[in-house]
Amino acid sequence: METLFVVLIGAVAAVLANQNIAVFNDGLRPIVSEHIEGRLKRRELGLTAFAMSFGLVIGFGIPFTLSASIILIHSILLGTDIIGLIAPKNRWGLPAAAIVGGLYGWGLMVGLEGFVKLFDYLPVNFLEPMGQVGDPVVVTFMAFPALAVAMQFTIKKGILTFVVSALVRQLAVFVNEHEFLQIGGNAISLNQEGMALIVGMIFLFTYAIREKAEEGSSVDLASVFSEKVKSIKNNVAFFMIIGALIAGATNLLLMAGDPISLNLLADGKQADAGIAAAARAIGFIPLVASTAIATGVYSPVGFTLIFVVGLFSPNVWVAVIIGAIVIFGEVMLLSSIARFLDKYPGVRNSGENIRNAMTKILEVALLIGGANASNAIAPGFGFFFIAGFYLLNEAAGRPIVRMAVGPVGAIAVGIIANILVALGIMSIPQ
After folding, report:
1. Helix (H) or strand (E) holding 137
2. 0.85 surpassed by pTM
3. Are residues 20 and 82 in the same domain?
């Protein structure tokens, strides 16, 4: 059943991309819209999708998937974006996308097990140290609302948001240590990063809502893009299918929607992972809604609330049903969300700042994590390699996205360490 879920997700997501209905990569939605309106050829669209997503699959999705033995949704849906958009939009391209997308999902499941077994035979098993790649992400991610506030509003407001978030985090640590919160004699442990993240998001949206539209400047997004909203609503059945599948797969702990919840799931903290996923979903609503309304192209995971459904549902079938209902509600509410975003332009504008802030935080966290993992694999050499790799990548004009440098560098160090041990140049790290 687990394999079937992943295979179906791969097949359906590839079909949605092939039919220009939904793509996972936020940056691809406007480009797909250009193709729909006849300004971009299919071949150019496929090549653009490959260029934008392949590096993230290899350098971001797969390393996280390997480090936790849980599929990071990016590794499958960025891949199906490429598969669906490269396949021509005709009568044979559709079944080809479905078949290749399903095989790709199956390959992730089968290949994952094979990879894990393969590491046991290596002189230097670097699978466990690879887990350190994601360690800083959970802690540093709580700073992204403060960075988004600083980028959109003022640096003073960003600093205030950061300081209050940090204080709330330490207050949560203090409460946990002294077991102040109890129910029925059992101490309740607060997730300190989750509390800081929620406080930061409250600050961000409070500032955003205060930013009102100027007199006469309001534009009714729902009216302007009514045909595009209508096209998304016409495909709601497809979104319900993939929403149900992803919610079910998440409930089975097969996949996670972001590095934060993935690492928490790997540590057995399912409730904390659900809180982190909920905070992320709230932050992504302006971005997903705005791009969907403006382009007529949705995301196969919607507002990412289906991951929250999967993590908090009591069993897989409840997750499947609620997942379908939730994504149906999202699509039906797009017009209302458009009017709300129009009323509060600060909230609408925060979408891009949220995305940029998340990217910057992840770039720093993954570089630190990649350096720590590399040094655990090959002490001394690991730090040297990551520093040189990062600087040379910058000097070369950044052929590898910054976010991928840490994870890719850690994998490279693992391979190099095994080669050096095999040649007798390096001893096996203790």
Report:
1. helix 135-140
2. no
3. yes
